[in-house]
Amino acid sequence: MDTACRPGRTRQRRPLPRLLGLFGLVGLGGLIGLVGLLAAVGPDAGTPARAAAASSMSAPSAPVVPWSWPVSVPHPVVQAFTAPEHPWSPGHRGIDVGTPAGSDVTAPDDGVVHFSGVVVDRPVLSMRHPDGVLSSLEPVVSDLVAGDPVVRGQVVGTVQAGHCPDVECVHLGARIDGEYVSPLLMLGLGRPSVLLPTRHRR
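and the corresponding structure tokens:
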């Protein structure tokens, strides 16, 4: 009688010979080491390294040649950059630099005028620079128009009074690919400060 047709009997896989064969190839010490390695690596191995690499790729970096200050010395920072908790939250998206009203304002780097005009109730001048960088200055009155080329250190306008309540100042903003960053980073000072999530995703 064909044994394959006998009722109540099924063929079962026998993993033991395979394990013995593996044992013969690597030995007891190698097999124990392999099991320990797999346990230590785990399913999430490499995740911190990948996260660190992604973070370093997305983090803003300072320009090779830092910006020049848009006003003459001593140009004190009278209000620092404060990143908002959320894009719609209040914050101080730039720095206020002390300088008398009527002072000349210069382009921090080579670029092209992105916008020149009044926003709400204040004159604003913004310039687009290489690598997705945008600078903005306010309140600044300028005769330039969108599309005009500018060079580093070129006088692009004059400071108007009224931005800071206690001192005369000009507001300098910086964005990289649409993200607000501290202008001090672009000026070669300090570490990058950007809007980051406050909670880890689960």
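(Above: one complete record from the training split.) Helices lie at 15-41, 47-58, 183-186.
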